[in-house]
UniProtKB/TrEMBL annotation:
InterPro entries: Arc_rbn_hlx_hlx, DinJ, RelB/DinJ
Species: Sphaerochaeta globosa (strain ATCC BAA-1886 / DSM 22777 / Buddy)
Protein name: Addiction module antitoxin, RelB/DinJ family
Keywords, comma-separated and alphabetical: Toxin-antitoxin system
PANTHER family recorded: ANTITOXIN DINJ-RELATED (PTHR38781)
């Protein structure tokens, strides 16, 4: 028994996805079924869904790096670097 799912998708995204799936031998229906089965198997979305923008801490570190603030090193040896990294 099969059911039908109707989804509205941007035409460009649909065309790009269709071309991708066809290049690996899948049609859109099979690709979507694989996604649904994997979602069930993983008990959630089968990949990380997150904001693509850096968080505040990362933005601050990037700003520091650009402005030469709060930097470590240089290190004279790998051992010295590992000590600084607590590894």
């Amino acid at each position: 028994m099969s059911g039908t799912i109707t989804v509205r998708v941007n035409e460009k995204i649909k065309a790009e996805a269709q071309a991708l799936y066809e290049s690996i031998g899948l049609d859109m229906s099979t690709a979507i079924n694989i996604f649904l089965l994997k979602s069930i198997d993983m008990n959630g979305i089968p990949f990380n869904v997150s904001k693509s923008f850096p968080n505040k801490e990362t933005l601050a570190a990037m700003d520091d790096a650009e402005n030469g603030k709060n930097l470590s090193g240089p290190y004279k040896s790998m051992k010295e670097l590992k000590v600084a990294l607590n590894v």
